[in-house]
Design a protein that fits this description.
- By secondary structure, the chain is of the alpha+beta class.
- It contains five helices and three strands.
């Protein structure tokens, strides 16, 4: 009697399903890690955008105050050490201002005279350092300036005359 030897399908495929399951779990794990990484980066980007928005608000607030002030006295009142600039700077470097570590490098203002009668161009610079940036940018002071470690927002405003000739 001739009987064909039949191979049991279970014996030839032993462990294949387990291997497929482990590979699927590995692929899903990498996908989840990628999603977590994207979410972490998006949260950092939202924080950075918030600080840039607040810096822009502070700079435009100062520009608005300068536009409303007497153009002949604007450089003295809003220049470094002036009463208007000092009051505005104190608002920014306050602990609850929203711009972290702004007190380390206070805001700056520089002036360029325009060729018109009373017009000046003010350049306003605001510095801040987001939480966690201290370790991320370690060694950025290689040029000797700690300001290289800070984010900055720079804007200009023409005050006193809206026409530059």
């Amino acid at each position: 009697m001739n009987t064909l030897a039949t191979c049991s399908p279970r014996r030839t495929q032993g462990g294949a399903f387990l291997l497929e399951a482990l590979v699927a779990i590995l692929v899903i794990s990498f996908g989840i890690l990628g999603i977590v990484g994207l979410q972490a980066r998006s949260l950092k980007a939202v924080g950075d955008a918030q600080y840039r928005g607040e810096a822009a608000f502070y700079a435009e607030t100062l520009a608005g105050r300068m536009w409303a002030h007497d153009p002949t006295d604007v450089k003295a009142y809003f220049g470094s050490g002036g009463a208007g600039f000092t009051a505005w700077t104190n608002q920014i470097i306050a602990a609850d201002s929203g711009l972290p570590r702004a007190a380390t490098n206070p805001p700056e203002i520089t002036w360029d005279d325009l060729s018109s009668a009373n017009g000046v161009m003010a350049t306003i610079t605001i510095y801040w350092q987001a939480p966690g940036d201290e370790q991320a940018i370690a060694g950025c002071e290689a040029d000797g300036t700690p300001k290289a470690c800070f984010h900055k927002y720079v804007t200009t405003a023409v005050v006193g005359s809206n026409q530059a000739t």
